[in-house]
Design goal:
The protein is mostly helical and about 190 residues long. Helices cover about 70% and strands about 0% of the residues. The mean pLDDT is about 90.
Length: about 190
């Protein structure tokens, strides 16, 4: 007779994601995971596989959440510049239970050089965000909000680079005012 799960899979996956996000892959032990997730080791393996498989699933969840946040901002009917501003502010103004910084940036610096699966997932995630920036900039150019003579791909790459840098800085003692000033300077290139 098969036992039913006594936990919500999405809830425990979110808990694992937050733990990996805070501590990193290498510093998160299996014991840390089972304690933080509130499940037995046997249940973790049966549901998610080994530690690496669980980590990959948390990266996939992170990307899914990030895309949903981006699509939510776009669906609100914001202008392209407002969506871009929203994405910078969302990163800087952490006001919920998510850890500061970026799970993808942490993963790239810790694992991407030696883990092709992590490298592929994070690269795809970064490419998605940059493509969103390109699409938003091109839309704004067609509406006359951003000069048409600007190269949308270069602008998007510049915004993405700043966004990644802010994902690192937000984990330090850098104050939010300074982070917003950095974001402002980066976004200003759209009008220059």
């Amino acid at each position: 007779m098969t036992r039913s799960k006594e936990f919500d899979e999405n809830d425990v996956l979110l808990k694992a994601m937050h733990l990996f996000w805070e501590k990193g892959y290498e510093k998160t032990s299996l014991q840390d995971l089972v304690e933080h997730m509130g499940i037995h080791r046997r249940s973790m393996y049966a549901t998610f596989g080994d530690k690496h498989s669980l980590y990959v699933k948390t990266l996939e969840l992170y990307e899914k959440q990030k895309r949903a946040t981006i699509q939510e901002a776009i669906a609100r009917g914001y202008t392209a510049k407002q969506v871009i501003r929203f994405l910078f502010d969302y990163l800087i103004e952490v006001d919920d239970d998510r850890p500061v910084g970026c799970l993808f940036v942490n993963s790239v610096t810790e694992l991407a050089m030696r883990d092709p699966e992590v490298r592929d997932i994070t690269t795809e995630g970064f490419n998605y965000t940059e493509k969103v920036f390109v699409d938003l900039i091109q839309k704004a150019q067609h509406l006359g909000e951003i000069p048409i003579d600007k190269n949308a791909e270069i602008l998007a790459a510049s915004l993405q680079t700043t966004l990644i840098g802010l994902r690192v800085l937000v984990r330090t003692s850098t104050d939010k005012k300074k982070l917003h000033q950095i974001a402002d300077a980066s976004i200003a290139i759209l009008d220059a």
